[in-house]
Design goal:
Mean pLDDT: 82
Distance between the termini: 90 Å
Radius of gyration: 34 Å
Strand content: under 5%
Largest sheet: none
Number of helices: 8
Order of helices and strands: HHHHHHHH
Helix content: over 70%
Length: 179
Amino acid sequence: MTIKELITRSLNGEQLSPAEKAELSAFDPETLTAELNHARSQLELLENEKLSHSEKLQKELDTLRSTHSTLENEHQELKRRCRIEKLTGEIGCSDADYFDFLARRDGLDLDDTAAVKEFSARLAETSPGCFRARITPGSSSGIAPETFRSHHPASAFAASGSQVDRIMDSLASAAMVNN
């Protein structure tokens, strides 16, 4: 009985005899894979011995062309990925993979600046969650930033100090404006 038949019977819930169980437990697919790989390499060596010098060179050239093609494809993919990362950073898109997916689907030429701007504008309308929020100072308080600065010179908009200090000043100023 073959290993395949034993496995099938076992999967179907049939009882196996002790001899069949021993045969199944002794089966090692990794050993068979190693033997197969060794046999393939031996066969290739024998085939290479039969080839003439020009045939060997042609076979090696074909292998090198295949490798070159693979490496060229990987290089082009890396260049595209770099270009996508740069574009998404410039336009404020936070999901480069989604941008790339849609750009590929729509056949977007990444070197065409006008087409990229148009595509980005459409994407911002249809998928605003893919873009970083654009927050401007004073936009939610109803007070123009210049007016706020003139009334609160030691505010968060002071030129010096750490970011934490500016945030603390901003919170204190917000409490003064609301009172």
